[in-house]
Amino acid sequence: MVRNVATTGSVAAPPITGAIVGSQPGNPSTFYAWEPSTWPQPPTIVDGAFIENLRAIFNESMLGEIDNVIGDALKSNGDLQHRGHVVAISLLCALDAVSFYGYGADKIQDFVKAHFPAEYRPHAERLLILYRHIMVHRWNLFRAALAPGNDPPTTDANGVLCLGLIHLRDALRVAVEDFLQRLGSDATLQANTLRAYSRLRGSATP
User: Fold this and answer.
1) Nearest alpha carbon to residue 11 among 78, 44, 59
2) Closest CA to 146 of 93, 88, 89, 96
3) Which of helix, strand or coil describes residue 113?
4) 25 occurs within a structural domain
5) Helical H segments across the chain, by residue range
6) Distance (Å, whole) CA 111 – CA 121
7) 9 domain residue, yes or no
8) Number of domains within the chain
9) Is residue 1 part of a domain?
10) Domain annotation covers residue 8
11) 106 is in which domain, residue-wise?
């Protein structure tokens, strides 16, 4: 069962995104999680510092921002109705971005099977096709559904998969942390992640 982050403490983050214009006087090497040009150069090995940098990138530039949107919607609307597509697309893009590090492009299903809570793993392929691809490229859902709360994955009598947005958010946080924990000892994940990080860092505008 996914831990409900919303009931165990605040996950709100301060405003963080935005282009960095110019340099910081006296501190030119400041690390901004959302600005790849400020990321440290790729290390030769995966160590604790590298994993902490990835944790900051994932939490500050992705998950924390999504939590802010969810928090604002809950304050103004009481729930995520009429905010669901925007939140879902953000979650799925974050899942796509994180899974790229360890598994490559369009490998959401491998990340889900390896790191998500057990109730999501049978739906890994459908998360990629019915949710990520269809929602991002067509906006609407055709053979899937969303609920605004903490509902776990369910399939109705017609085979339609339904996900709860808060539950999915919490599951993604659990999966990201599991990935980072395994990264400390899994040689294949380490090689893939260093390669992906190097590619992203190398493409950044100085």
Assistant:
1) 59
2) 88
3) helix
4) no
5) 48-58, 64-77, 84-103, 108-115, 124-126, 134-138, 165-183, 187-202
6) 9
7) no
8) 1
9) no
10) no
11) 46-183
Length of the chain: 206
Distance CA 58, CA 173 (A): 9
DSSP for 26-73, written as a single string: T-TT---TT-GGGSPPPPSS--HHHHHHHHHHHIIIIIHHHHHHHHHH
Distance CA 57, CA 64 (A): 10
Q: How far apart are CA 116 and CA 9, in angstroms?
A: 21
- Give the whole-number percent of the chain exceeding pLDDT 90: 44
Structure tokens at 178: 């599991």
Instruction: Give residue-wise pLDDT tens across range 106-162.
Output: 889 999 999 999 999 998 888 877 667 767 766 777 667 787 888 898 888 788 788
With beta carbons less than 8 A apart as the criterion, state whether 107 and 138 touch: no
* 90 Cβ contact list (under 8 Å, min separation 6): 65, 66, 69
